[in-house]
Amino acid sequence: MVGFLLTALFVWGLSILTWMFVSKRVRSADVTRIKDRLTGTQKKKAKSADPENVALFQPEEVKGKITRSLLTKYNQTKRLQDFLEQAGVKWDAARFVHACMGFFIAGYILWWLFAPAEFHGFSLVAAIVAAILPFVHVMRLKKKRLHSFEEIFPDSLEFVARSMRASHAFSVSLEMIHREFPDPLATEFKRTFEEHNLGLPLDSALQGLARRVPLLDVHFFVSAVMLQKRTGGNLAEILDKLAYIIRERFKLRGRIRAVSAHGKMTAVTLSCIPMGVGVMMFFTNPDYVKFFFTDDVGQIMFGAAVALQLIGYLIMKKIVTIEV
């Protein structure tokens, strides 16, 4: 069995090296194609190229073709791509899926090699947990990025209002945000301005901003601008009032967070006590704890205990979470 796992690990490593080699060849072909386009010799080479080498000129279809087709079939490509854009990760959906698959295989093999023999039945659970790690990492980046955006968003609204009072156009004010504010706010507004500057209607560009930054305040901003464009009014005054409302929401949210801190601490403590007791029992009386891993009835009891503990934590978290 160990020899089989070592062979599987070797095959997995060989596939990674092969993928890196193919990616390098694809990038080299892409650079060559760009150079040929700049020198005007691409058409001549394309006519004399063999049909088998045509794929080198289309690297986006070489890497992850099967994964992309599956994601497209089940309508998950756009959802995953939006999720990655919201986190500021410059990956495509296929690469993210490949990362999850790689973590799944690595987690399964490492658990099987290094865990005791009586725990080999949990290899699949360890692999699933490992596969979730890229998703958790991207979710953490998304939360951090949106929080950074939300902190400086009221200042940007007041900046746009002052700029419009100084007789600047609204689109020019969006472009000025890129020079006056840090990322991620500067990057998102620069992209919005460039999309509008290249011919995309302002409504569509703002809706793209709301899709990439799924915050309630951003949706209010987009709705206010689109409504003012249709009905008229003083947009600078609207943006000032919106910035004031956002700051007041921040203050209210801080008070609620302070009041609910005791409940959150209680929920974490009650959830950690069973885990702590289980670890202590594993060191003091391991034979008693091994029953939950080796016996069929014990495994059912262990799974039910974990599920009930998770449900209890989610209920307590729901109670102390108050949306503003």
Fold blueprint:
Blueprint: H1 2-39, H2 42-48, H3 59-62, H4 65-73, H5 77-87, H6 93-114, H7 123-165, H8 170-180, H9 185-197, H10 202-212, H11 216-231, H12 235-259, H13 261-284, H14 286-294, H15 296-320
Helix pairs in contact: 1-6, 4-6, 5-7, 6-7, 7-8, 7-12, 8-9, 9-10, 10-11, 11-12, 13-14, 13-15, 14-15
Please tell me about this protein's structure.
The chain has 324 residues and is mostly helical. Among the domains are: 46 residues; 111 residues, Receptor-associated Protein, CATH 1.20.81; 61 residues. Helix content is 83%, strand content 0%. It contains 15 helices and no strands. The longest helix is centred in the middle third of the chain and has 43 residues. The radius of gyration is 27 Å and the shape is elongated. The chain starts with a helix and ends with a helix. The N terminus is likely disordered.
Structure class: mainly alpha
Low-pLDDT runs of 5+ residues are 1-11, 25-31, 38-62
CA-atom Rg in angstroms: 27 Å
Overall CATH architecture of the domain at 144-254: Up-down Bundle
The quaternary structure here is single chain
Number of helices: 15
Determine the mean pLDDT.
79
Bin the helical content. over 70%
- The global form is elongated
Q: Which CATH C-level class of the domain at 144-254 is it?
A: Mainly Alpha
Sequence of secondary-structure elements: HHHHHHHHHHHHHHH
Number of strands: 0
Largest sheet: none
Could you give the distance between the termini? Answer: 55 Å
| CATH third-tier fold name of the domain at 144-254 | Receptor-associated Protein
Report the portion of residues in β strands.
under 5%
